[in-house]
Every structure is written in C-alpha cells, then in structure tokens.
Design brief:
Distance between the termini: 17 Å
Radius of gyration: 17 Å
Low-confidence stretches: none
Shape: globular
Structural class: alpha/beta
Bound molecules: phosphoenolpyruvate
Largest sheet: 8 strands, parallel, barrel
Strand order of the largest sheet: 1-2-3-4-5-6-7-8
Strand content: 5-15%
Mean pLDDT: 96
Order of helices and strands: EHHEHEHEHHEHHHEHHEHEH
Length: 261
C-alpha cells in the first residue's frame, strides 16, 4: 500500500431481501468459476476484503459457497440484547453462532421502513463490537437534505448520536462506516467521485473529533449508492473512499466480479 491508500479496501454486496438457497448455489458456482478463471481469489484478497450481507436464511448456503475463498458473510441487522422476548430478532451471539463475520446496521431502508434511530444503531454497534463481530454502519443524507445544503449537518448528527452509545473500548475494535447518500441507493444516480470524496473527508474529520485521529485514519469509509462495474474504478480510486457497499450490482455474480477485477 502507498501512503495515499493506507487502508485495505472493503467491498461488500448487500443482497437485501433477495435470493433463495437455490439462487445462492448458482450464484457461487458462477462467482467461484469467474474468480478462478481470472487467477484465483488470492490476488483479489491482496487488494480487497470482500463480504456479502445476506438474509439469515442464506447464511449456511453462503458459507458453503465462499468456503476456502476468504470471502466473509454479514448479517443485515441485529438486536443489541443478547437474548430475550424480542420476537423476530437475532442477537449478536446468535449471529456469531451462525458463523457470520459482522452485520450491516443503520441501512437507510431500515431507518425508513423500520423506524431505526441513530441511538438504536449505536446500541447495535456496541453489541457487535463487544461480541467480536464487525459493525458496518450506514449513514447518509436524503435528496432534500442535500438540496437544502444540509449534508454535513446530517452526517454530523448521525455520527454524534450513534457514537453516544459506543464505548471507548469498543472503538478499539474494527468497524466500517458506509456513506450511502439515500438519493443514490437503488436509483441509478451515483454521487460523483468529487461529491463522494468530499463527504468521506468530512466524515473522517468528524471521526477524528469524536474518536481520535488514529481511529479516524484507520477506519474504512466505504461508498454505497448505485456503484456498478462502470463507475466503481473511479470511485474506488479516490483516496478517502475505502471500498463500496453494493446493492443491485452484487446480485449478479458477473457484475460483482467485474467490480473486483
Ligand atoms: C445498498 O443497498 O446499500 C445500495 C448501495 O444499493 P444500490 O447499490 O442498489 O444503490
């Protein structure tokens, strides 16, 4: 790594509520074939940490699919309590028991449809860190907030309120921030590299204030919002964009592999 790119990039698919176990078997047959035809996973692993955020019904099939590649499986949510009367929820110890590596938390779809607050996201972050799993924390502004010139204010509030639930101890564990402008998710609109880089620089500066300079320099801040094989190279070439969270383009093995190669 050069000094300009001190952090290993993290590329994660987000499958949302897609795929059955049969689909997953087909996906990984193609994924593994394409990777092996292009020289094997080890050359990708030199540049990228790779993961898929998948529905809980697919954990086991995905783990079989990625066996011996080093690709990690993530959940798409978790509860902050270890156990209890929380019907429909999955705890961190349960996710650990299922063999997943971490969880995407605070995705804008969960904020929008499930009323997830910054405080809840912070509690989930804390529970994941304490449990030894990787939190991938999503933040980002809506279209109206960007148009009103409030992008930085929104990101700052999201970070502050979320971090208010996270202990100093937990900040010593690895975490990933996903900057996902809501207006770019699933819309085909992508932040320009300049817009994304500026937001990532701002987030890193805020993190330096809220945590420590060392933490802010080590943390991977990844971009999400209609990233695809045509725009990934340019976005990933920005010095503060440390990877991508990829929805639509992660559903087809061919597209996702093109992003990795
Ligand atoms: C996402 O769901 O996190 C996402 C970025 O989706 P898409 O790539 O489809 O915009």
């Amino acid at each position: 790594m050069t000094d300009a790119y001190p952090r290993k990039k993290f590329i994660a698919g987000n499958w949302k509520m897609h795929k059955t176990r049969g689909d997953v078997e087909t996906f990984f047959q193609t994924f593994n074939r394409l990777i092996s035809e292009s020289g094997g996973f080890s050359q990708i692993a030199e540049r990228y940490d790779v993961a898929f955020g998948v529905p809980a019904t697919l954990f086991e099939t995905c783990e079989q699919g990625v066996k011996s590649t080093g690709v990690r499986i993530l959940a798409q949510n978790c509860h902050w309590e270890a156990q209890g009367a929380f019907t429909g929820e999955l705890s961190v110890p349960m996710l650990k028991d299922a063999g997943v590596h971490g969880a995407i938390i605070g995705h804008s779809e969960r904020r929008q449809y499930n009323g997830e607050t910054n405080e809840a996201v912070g509690k989930k972050w804390q529970a994941l860190s304490r449990g030894g799993l990787l939190p991938v924390i999503c933040i980002g502004e809506s279209r109206s907030e960007r148009e009103a010139g409030k992008t930085e204010e929104v990101l700052s509030v999201q970070l502050r309120e979320t971090l208010s639930q996270v202990s100093k101890d937990s900040l010593g564990h690895d975490f990933v921030i996903a900057y996902e402008p809501v207006w770019a998710i699933g819309t085909g609109l992508t932040a320009t590299p300049d817009q994304a880089e500026a937001a990532h620089v701002f987030i890193r500066r805020e993190l330096a204030e809220l945590t420590s300079k060392a933490c802010s320099e080590a943390v991977r801040i990844i971009y999400g919002g209609s990233m695809n094989p045509s725009n990934a190279r340019e976005l990933l070439g920005c010095p503060n964009i440390d990877g991508g969270l990829i929805g639509g383009a992660s559903l087809k093995a061919e597209d996702f592999v093109r992003i990795l190669l």
